[in-house]
Amino acid sequence: MPEMTPGTALPETPREFGFFVDGKWHKGQEMFDRHSPAHDVPVTRIPRCTTDDLDLAVRAARRAFDDRRWSGLSGGARAAVLLRAAEGLRRRRDEIARWEVLENGKPVAQASGEIDHCIACFETAAGAARLLHGDSFNNLGDGLFGMTLREPIGVVGLITPWNFPFLILCERAPFILASGCTLVVKPAEVTSATTLILADILSEAGIPAGVYNVVTGTGREIGQALTEHVGIDMLSFTGSTAVGRSCVHASANSNLKKLGLELGGKNPIIVFADADLEDAADGAAFGISFNTGQCCVSSSRLIVERPVAEEFERILARKMEKIRVGDPFDPETQIGAITTETQNKTILGYIEKGKAEGAKIVTGGAALKTGHGRFIQPTLFSGVTPSMSIARDEIFGPVLSSFHFDTLEEAIALANDTVYGLSASVWSKNIDQALTVTRRVQAGRFWVNTIMAGGPETPTGGFKQSGWGRETGLLGVEEYTQVKSVHIETGKRSHWITS
Ligand code: NDP
């Protein structure tokens, strides 16, 4: 563990933000101080908004939608704003990365890389805004012509989590804006800064007032009120399956708003004996440790073919021990701090449960003693059985559970033995084997001989209890539209009333 040398990256006083509604900054009546999870010093001061502030935002978004100041523009005009915003992200890359590090605890090199992905999201969404279109039906006979129009769904509420505050925002917001919808965003309270910085960037890029609004505060108060709000036409939620379920109840009990949900995962990584074991071990170490395992697509269940299982776990443990855990401002750091104290307790609690249930620690298994901040060693458990809690629950930390299999059928059954279906990865040089697993394991995202690869061109989302709907790509824009079927009669009507 390297010395903590945060240097000048820490602010002398917390940066104070307002909340953003109708193109203007508003002062919060009550404020909340966020402390850096790696350094324990206050870094930002964020408004704890009231439900009146939320109403103000929803009204502004509604006006902006209804008067067509955004949805009435051409796709090209919306694309121009999104491309200018992409440039704004490029200009302010270091600033955004710094506040991500300060609030989330992730390494600065990773945060900067994520912003490159966010720029790509804006550029992809800009292209999609230009390409979004309906369809035509020239097959209804000469007297009738049909078409479908794609219309923006209206005012969208967006609730984002703390693990990828800016990345998840940018995998949603530009696509929602591309569709012509207007937005009210509620970021996780502990990581609100970069969602607010985006308000500044979008304003500079020329987005009309009221199109992008941000209301900060707690999930219990503002998040819940947003899910129940009758002024919201669609809600996109990313977070825990428990809160996802409460969004479904809130929608059912209010205005039946459409829901997009990206929820938990307990994602399998299947390694066959014929895989390149060094490559697969590198992928497995990355898949569980990236972002300290606080990733909905973390591959947290290793399913490895028995004849190579022991050797593979040895190679993997050696690699996990080399991961550089430490000060997120050190450019060499690969994994930083655990973002919240609650999450830290949850992860350490699962490590204790794993030991108590009889699984064997191959490497890791403890918090790092640093004097400040919260850091956990990447941890590998072997001898895990399907009924153990570390086999079933989403831990959301750098804790990998290893299972062994003898046959292809057994590997597929183990992979599917979960209520979740977010992502999966298979490692094999045998194309028949790799493709069979890809087709039969239930997951919204799949990687063959790689892991967590891909850009904003392809859609993301889950099977089973991992969620509803898709984000990013063209599908990620279409999700925020509704289809209107239109029929046009040409020529003289054939009359119903004949006498
Ligand atoms: P939550 O689901 O509570 O938080 C996600 C977002 O929802 C945050 O913006 C939060 O606001 C908000 N929220 C909280 N309660 C409500 C509510 N009743 N109505 C509407 N919005 C609400 O996740 P946690 O932060 O509690 O993390 C718990 C677990 O969830 C993790 O251990 C992990 O397993 C999973 N998780 C999964 C994520 C994913 O990407 N799929 C992301 C984050 C967590 P606020 O934080 O301000 O309270």
Q: What does it look like?
A:
GO terms for molecular function: oxidoreductase activity, acting on the aldehyde or oxo group of donors, NAD or NADP as acceptor. This is Aldehyde dehydrogenase. Keywords: Oxidoreductase. Residues 27-486 form the Aldehyde dehydrogenase domain. The protein is built from 16 helices and 23 strands. The chain has 499 residues and is an alpha/beta fold. It folds into two domains: 8-263 and 466-484, 3-Layer(aba) Sandwich (Aldehyde Dehydrogenase, Chain A, domain 1), CATH 3.40.605.10; 268-448, Aldehyde Dehydrogenase, Chain A, domain 2, CATH 3.40.309. The structure holds NADPH dihydro-nicotinamide-adenine-dinucleotide phosphate. NADPH dihydro-nicotinamide-adenine-dinucleotide phosphate (NDP) binds next to helix 8, helix 9 and helix 12.
Keywords:
Aldehyde Dehydrogenase, Chain A, domain 2, single chain, 499 residues, Aldehyde Dehydrogenase, Chain A, domain 1, alpha/beta, 16 helices, binds NADPH dihydro-nicotinamide-adenine-dinucleotide phosphate, seven-stranded mixed beta sheet
